[in-house]
Design brief:
The complex is a heterodimer of chains A (221) and B (309). With 221 residues, chain A is mainly alpha-helical. Chain A is 83% helix and 0% strand. In chain A, α7 runs antiparallel to α8. In chain B, strands 1, 2, 3, 4, 5, 6, 7, 8 and 9 form a nine-stranded mixed beta sheet that branches. Classes of the chains: A mainly alpha (221), B alpha/beta (309).
Chain lengths: 221, 309
């Protein structure tokens, strides 16, 4: 119990950092994923080609390799111009999470757009809407509720995947757990208990809000 | 929680292609116990004419199974980059070989355990003992027995050679690092020392320590065990490439000792401990330890204080 009280402020600090990492990264991943989805749906080869290559390369390589490449590889290149200090655990961590998840979110967007019935597009086009109007006013709004569950799923994954930032010295929940594990080998149960509760505290509200948000959107349609 | 832990461990191991070592170690011990003839790295016959050191309490009577982390474990125990398929090297490998040699017919067997999991591996009796730059912390004393010290080390400050803030100065207390961003290893003693002062911005690396971060000015300094600094910065020992941009600032501070740790709850530990202490005493007296430390450029006058001659 004493250990839990002693460790709590540190764990809260870790939770705070994990939230910051994930909120920024997930927002960037959604933006980039949206752009990638539009590009890969395009009929123009030089738009859909690069997008497909990016998505497949990112999805097919391990995140730990990506984070090392961004943190160590990019940093070595930036060092030539004296800019290496901008490539720190925060920027490299957020960039890796955002780039990695954008590939997955792009596929969620694509699947969402494809799930809206073709008849909707046919009807809107025959009513005289142009392609842009059709996409932003008809297809996209109907696709959103379909995409919320996979987005929530990915956000929960990201909350746990952000642990990878600890390999480049970033401070987040898992690095805090590791540090307490290293210093309290004789009394590990409270640490594990705190770790599980912390991750539950992060994940459960996320899924709860995603569900209620989805319910509202469906009701609005 | 266990999801990404497992994943991280898996990735790390896969990259090192060394994950099977633990299994292989167990298998080999099993084969040896069945009378099979298995060759392993290390293992020197006891010097004739002397009584061998007691090997009572070993998990497997023919193997001294010591836990340590060879992934980024230089110069303690590591894979020589010039000889990636050869036996493990490092000053602790040589000490383990020497101890096993004194036991007669016993071979040293390194069991790979991630540094952060060594304590748990010991509690689970997966190994006879831990030898991995192991310190006698207050927490470990609750669950472990310790051998006599075998090396006296200190914490070394590392800075950039061209950093004007440190020219002609030396750091003798962590207080002097207030306001600086200082790197160290996760779980290292230097981390504990610096975390006690909230004004120091500590950056802990889990696994590989990125000395390039200091060269690239992401940090102001590193603060860690002297043997690590000597190997990675000065370039002592096989496979080491010195980093000319960095220097060791002054002498190591906060001296402390490395010990071999045993599981207090395991009744065999109390039987093994006297044998290990006996072996360490002989190695200190006959100059074997001194020879090992000299070879790795770790020998200094502090060693006399723990009886290394």
């Amino acid at each position: 119990m004493n250990l839990i009280i002693q460790a709590l402020p540190d764990f809260l600090d870790g939770i705070k950092n994990t939230i910051i990492y994930c909120v920024i990264s997930f927002a960037l991943a959604l933006l980039l994923g949206f752009a990638l989805a539009l590009m890969s749906n395009s009929r123009i080869l030089w738009l859909n080609g690069p997008a497909r290559i990016f998505i497949e390369v990112i999805r097919s390589t391990p995140m730990i390799a990506q984070i090392f490449l961004i943190y160590y590889g990019l940093s070595a290149a930036l060092a030539i111009y004296g800019l290496a200090s901008y490539d720190n655990a925060w920027t490299a961590g957020i960039a890796t999470l955002a780039l990695n998840y954008s590939a997955y979110e792009a596929e969620v967007f694509r699947a969402g757009f494809a799930s809206v019935s073709k008849g909707q597009t046919e009807a809107s086009l025959s009513l005289g809407l142009n392609e842009q109007q059709n996409f932003f006013r008809i297809v996209f709004p109907q696709a959103i509720p379909l995409m919320i569950p996979p987005f929530a799923n990915d956000l929960i994954y990201m909350l746990k995947d952000s642990a990878i930032i600890s390999v480049i010295g970033g401070v987040e929940l898992t690095s805090k757990i590791e540090s307490y594990r290293n210093h309290n080998g004789s009394n590990l149960l409270p640490i594990y208990f705190l770790a599980i509760v912390s991750y539950l505290l992060l994940s459960l509200p996320t899924s709860y809000f995603a569900r209620s948000f989805e319910r509202r959107l469906r009701a609005a349609l | 929680m266990s999801y990404e832990m497992n994943r991280r461990t898996l990735l790390k191991r896969a990259g090192q292609a060394g994950g099977l070592l633990t299994v292989a170690g167990g298998l080999e011990a099993l084969l040896a116990a069945c009378g099979g003839n298995v060759s392993t790295a290390g293992g020197v016959a006891a010097t004739p004419g002397t009584t061998p050191v007691s090997n009572a309490g070993l998990k497997s009577p023919n193997f001294l199974q010591w836990g340590s982390d060879y992934v980024s474990g230089a110069p303690y125990v590591f894979q020589d980059p010039a000889n990636p398929n050869g036996p493990l090297v490092g000053f602790e490998v040589e000490i383990a070989t020497a101890i096993a040699g004194l036991m007669g017919g016993v071979k040293q067997k390194q069991v790979e355990v991630t540094y952060g999991n060594l304590e748990q591996a010991l509690q689970a009796n997966q190994i006879d003992m831990v030898m991995n730059g192991w310190e006698k912390t207050e927490d470990r004393q609750k669950t472990e027995l310790f051998s006599d010290p075998y090396y006296r080390y200190g914490q070394q400050v590392i800075v950039r050679k061209d950093d004007a803030r440190f020219t002609g100065k030396s750091i003798t207390d962590v207080k002097q690092m207030e306001g600086l961003t200082v790197g160290t290893g996760a779980g290292y003693r230097a981390e504990t020392l610096m975390k006690a002062d909230p004004k120091i911005n500590v950056k802990s690396y889990d696994g590989n320590i990125a000395f390039s971060d200091l060269v690239q000015k992401k940090l102001d300094a590193f603060f860690l065990d002297l043997p690590i600094a000597a190997y990675y910065i000065t370039g002592t020992g096989p496979g080491a490439t010195p980093i000319p941009e960095l220097i060791l600032l002054g002498k190591p501070i906060y001296p402390d000792d490395y010990f071999i740790g045993f599981n207090m709850k395991n009744p065999d530990a109390a039987k093994l401990l006297p044998g290990i202490n006996d072996a360490l005493a002989r190695l200190k007296k006959d100059g074997t330890l001194k020879k090992i430390y000299t070879k790795w450029q770790l020998m200094n006058d502090q060693q006399a204080e723990i009886g290394v001659m």
